[in-house]
Design a protein that fits this description.
By secondary structure, the protein is an alpha+beta fold. Strand 5 and strand 6 form a beta hairpin. Helix 2 runs antiparallel to helix 3, helix 2 runs parallel beside helix 4 and helix 4 crosses helix 6. It starts with a strand and ends in an 11-residue tail after the last helix.
Length: 294
């Protein structure tokens, strides 16, 4: 389980964007069974529950019991008391603003007192979730806090507008895009593609046939490509050894990693790291590669 919380209210901004995030939170496979929490005074928390072992998300919000499917978004207003009743592990990201943004949201027509709504993971929401995760791990870099402010606002806007769209039966293309987005989030796990396809109503043959229409790489190669992209970033921005990176992205082995990395990028992993160090020294920066950045 991965669980990170980051208060960024005091971090310096380079701009004056009015929707400045106070804190952000991210967890992977967190067990929240029976947890009870209260939103701090003068805060609005936006909590996106991405996935769970449970099919429904049962909560008690201010003594009102609600139950919506995953994925969903909870809008937790100042002082709201929430108790989770589900028994499965959850993938969650959330962020909070000071409630002084409320008048701004109302003026923009982006305010609702509904506590929790089910959503569809559209390609745009998937993209913003990925941007959120990337930015979360790079907040120490210049300009990243401002970028996080903008990502969170875009994500809130997309989630809010999604609530107005009637839920229609998904087309095959939408289901494939949903699976691809899920793989992007869980790329470093051992994925049973046939099981994932069956959960979304595909037979094995139909899933692989439909996938080929929209993606040039088969699902496993698509996952490996995501692993290599993550490894490339880690080589540039951390001091992890290559063996550590292979473990971090859950590649099949160091030898296979070197071979596939060369096929994809035309250079060795060691060359990428050396080039990153040389660029950093050439820029005259004092920032060291951050071993926690991933």
């Amino acid at each position: 389980m991965q669980w990170f919380n980051n208060e960024i209210a005091t971090l310096p901004r380079q701009g004056s964007f009015p929707f400045q995030v106070k804190y952000i939170y991210i967890c992977h496979r967190a067990l929240l069974d029976g947890n009870c929490s209260r939103v701090p005074p003068n805060m609005l928390e936006v909590c996106l529950r991405l996935a769970s072992e449970d099919s429904l998300c049962p909560d008690i919000v201010n003594d009102r019991k609600i139950s919506v499917p995953f994925p969903n978004v909870a809008f937790k207003y100042s002082g709201a008391k929430t108790q989770t009743l589900g028994k499965g592990r959850r993938d969650v990201i959330s962020f909070a603003w000071a409630d002084e943004v409320m008048p701004l949201l109302k003026a923009m027509g982006l305010y609702s007192e509904e506590p929790c709504i089910g959503i569809r993971m559209t390609p745009e929401i998937e993209r913003l979730v990925q941007e959120f995760r990337k930015c979360f791990s790079r907040l120490a870099l210049p300009g990243m806090v401002d970028r996080m402010d903008w990502i969170c606002f875009q994500l809130y806007r997309e989630l809010y507008y999604e609530r107005w769209k009637p839920v229609q039966p998904q087309r095959l293309q939408e289901k494939i895009v949903d699976i691809a987005g899920w793989i992007q989030i869980h790329y470093n796990e051992n994925i049973d593609f046939e099981a994932i396809a069956q959960e979304r109503g595909f037979s094995r043959a139909t899933f692989f046939r439909e996938w080929k229409k929209y993606f040039p790489l088969p699902p496993l190669q698509y996952q490996n490509s995501l692993k290599l992209e993550s490894a490339y970033r880690l080589l540039q921005r951390t001091m992890f050894s290559i063996e550590q990176i292979v473990n971090e992205v859950n590649f099949s082995g160091t030898t296979a990693f070197h071979r596939k990395f060369m096929e994809k990028y035309g250079v060795t992993p060691g060359a990428v790291r050396r080039n990153a160090r040389e660029r950093q020294e050439g820029d005259g920066t004092e920032r060291a590669l951050d071993a926690k950045t991933y």
